[in-house]
């Protein structure tokens, strides 16, 4: 056995938040397309939402190279599953479980994959939305977010998410939260993608921008009420 | 062409005085006794068909698959010892997977064939290994279009327009030669392969058989898959009709 090396690695190129919600017909995921190199927004066209098989979508924040490694692993998994040709396909729950084991085992070796993953999908009518963190913490919910999304988007979800939203309502809700993230998260850019998975299949939109308004009252005197800021 | 190889046939590492390796020839005999498998290359893809002999009524329909996907774009039909065939398919799968992870591209069919043939040949070089008792017909679709290869237990592999091994290979090969493959689409090819397999199936010697058909073509999005159920039914019906007509012509009883 080799010497135990402490490899709490540092992330180099990172993606910011990913948002996910369940709606009437399936799951919606959203993220921006920025890859930050520390405080520099270095890459502006990073696709952080990927399709896995026919019925699952994966979004990742954190280290982009680790996300690429994860998608390679999942592609192999899906191909192997496809080759069985036994009438059954891996669903979002199974893939989530697989990812959970991968993340947890890496964490135990002190060599984590530095990602927070959002996994959404639908199999045989059953919707599924879950999250796995880099230390292997995992859970399912009606709406999830990673990183800054937890602080900025989830309160909005808690107020405004409701059961069985239509696609339009879901998109509107996500766009609202994406806008808030763009205003307040320094590693976010105004270039977003949305992924939609229903029984009919998966669509990932081309990158789009949202209309921004910097004239809002809240931006006029940003430090009002914050003692000691400049 | 059976000859007694007394003394020279005990090990795969022994040549006979007339330059033959008997163990490999005996391996081929295992394949000659198995159900026929057929592969043809049509103008838009490859069709693979297997006459899967069913030894017992207790077997579930659709089990004991003889055609396996090797990767998204390629598949293999195996004849001979089923377990040996599974090993070959397993090796082909890991070669394809490793190539993809190394080069980032789907393995070209020729390359896949080379690798599998090397592996099969490997097992003919050492006294502590035995040759594979199966042949594999590999069909796939890559940048250079659809291709068909066959790998034999000796490790030899050639590229074919049409190939057949197993019990009814002589009759099957004759039937394939009559086909105009360069003008045929895979849809027509499925019917042709089904007809050939029904034709070469010997009702007297073997009881029941199940037809397994797969294709990889433009219509299947260049992916290897089992022929869709409706087309499979169509093919079976056409093949049965052709066989019945043939039996009538020859004045044979249907049973």
Automatic annotation (TrEMBL), chain A:
What Pfam families does its record include?
Proteasome (PF00227)
Q: Which domain of life is it from?
A: Eukaryota
Keyword Hydrolase in the entry? The reply is no
Which keywords label this protein? Cytoplasm, Nucleus, Proteasome
Q: Where in the cell is it found?
A: Cytoplasm; Nucleus
Family from the record: Belongs to the peptidase T1B family.
Which purpose does this protein serve, as stated in its record?
A: Non-catalytic component of the proteasome.
The protein in question is named Proteasome subunit beta
TrEMBL record, chain B:
Q: Does the keyword Nucleus apply?
A: yes
All residue ranges annotated as the Proteasome alpha-type subunits domain in the record: 8-30
Compartments in which it is found: Cytoplasm; Nucleus
| Alphabetical list of PROSITE patterns matching this protein | PROTEASOME_ALPHA_1, PROTEASOME_ALPHA_2
Spell out the CDD domains in the cross-references: proteasome_alpha_type_3
**Record keywords:** Cytoplasm, Nucleus, Proteasome
Q: According to its UniProt record, where is this protein mainly located? A: cytoplasm
**Spans through the membrane:** none
Q: Which InterPro entries match?
A: Ntn_hydrolases_N (IPR029055), Proteasome_alpha (IPR050115), Proteasome_alpha-type (IPR023332), Proteasome_asu_N (IPR000426), Proteasome_sua/b (IPR001353)
Q: What does this protein do, in the record's words?
A: The proteasome is a multicatalytic proteinase complex which is characterized by its ability to cleave peptides with Arg, Phe, Tyr, Leu, and Glu adjacent to the leaving group at neutral or slightly basic pH.
Q: How does it assemble?
A: The 20S proteasome core is composed of 28 subunits that are arranged in four stacked rings, resulting in a barrel-shaped structure. The two end rings are each formed by seven alpha subunits, and the two central rings are each formed by seven beta subunits.
Which PANTHER family does the record match to this protein? PROTEASOME SUBUNIT ALPHA/BETA
Record family assignment: Belongs to the peptidase T1A family.
What name is this protein filed under? Answer: Proteasome subunit alpha type
Tell me the organism's taxonomic lineage: Eukaryota, Viridiplantae, Streptophyta, Embryophyta, Bryophyta
């Amino acid at each position: 056995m080799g010497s135990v090396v402490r490899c709490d690695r540092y992330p180099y190129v990172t993606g910011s938040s990913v948002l996910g919600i369940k709606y009437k017909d399936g799951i919606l995921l959203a993220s921006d397309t920025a890859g930050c190199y520390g405080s520099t927004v270095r890459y502006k066209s990073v696709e952080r939402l990927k399709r896995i098989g026919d019925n699952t979508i994966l979004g990742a924040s954190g280290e982009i190279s680790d996300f690429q490694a994860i998608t390679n692993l999942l592609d192999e998994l899906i191909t192997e599953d496809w080759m069985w040709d036994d009438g059954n396909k891996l669903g979002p729950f199974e893939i989530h479980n697989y990812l959970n084991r991968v993340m947890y085992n890496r964490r135990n070796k002190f060599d984590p994959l530095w990602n927070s993953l959002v996994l959404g999908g639908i199999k045989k009518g059953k919707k599924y939305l879950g999250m796995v963190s880099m230390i292997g913490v995992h859970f399912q919910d009606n709406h999830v977010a990673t990183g800054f999304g937890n602080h900025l988007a989830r309160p909005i979800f808690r107020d405004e998410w409701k059961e069985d939203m239509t696609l339009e309502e879901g998109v509107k809700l996500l766009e609202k939260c994406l806008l808030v993230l763009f205003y307040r998260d320094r590693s976010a850019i105004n270039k977003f993608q949305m992924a939609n998975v229903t029984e009919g299949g998966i669509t990932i939109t081309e990158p789009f921008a949202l209309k921004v308004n910097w004239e809002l009252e809240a931006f006029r005197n940003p430090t009002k009420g914050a003692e000691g800021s400049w | 062409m059976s000859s007694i190889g007394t003394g020279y046939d005990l090990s795969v590492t022994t040549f006979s005085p007339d330059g033959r390796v008997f163990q490999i020839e005996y391996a081929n005999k295992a394949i000659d006794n198995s159900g026929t498998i057929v592969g043809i290359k049509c103008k838009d893809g490859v069709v693979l068909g297997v006459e899967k002999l069913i030894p017992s009524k207790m077997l579930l329909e659709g089990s004991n698959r003889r055609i396996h996907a090797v990767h998204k774009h390629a598949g293999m039909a195996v004849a001979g010892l089923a377990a040996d065939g599974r090993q070959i398919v397993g090796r082909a799968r890991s070669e394809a997977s490793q190539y993809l992870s190394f080069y980032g591209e789907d393995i070209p069919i020729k390359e896949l064939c080379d690798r599998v043939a090397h592996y099969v040949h490997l097992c003919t070089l050492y006294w502590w290994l035995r040759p594979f008792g199966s042949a594999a017909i590999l069909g796939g679709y890559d940048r250079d279009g659809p291709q068909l290869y066959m790998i034999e237990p000796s490790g030899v592999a050639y590229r074919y327009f049409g190939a057949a091994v197993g019990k009814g290979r002589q009759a099957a090969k004759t039937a394939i030669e009559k086909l105009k493959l360069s003008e045929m689409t895979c849809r027509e090819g499925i019917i042709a392969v089904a007809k050939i397999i029904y034709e070469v199936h010997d009702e007297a010697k073997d009881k029941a058989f199940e037809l397994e058909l797969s294709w990889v073509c433009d219509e299947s999005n260049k992916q290897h898959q089992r022929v869709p159920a409706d087309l499979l039914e169509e093919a079976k019906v056409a093949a049965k009709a052709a066989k019945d007509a043939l039996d009538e012509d020859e004045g044979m009883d249907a049973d």
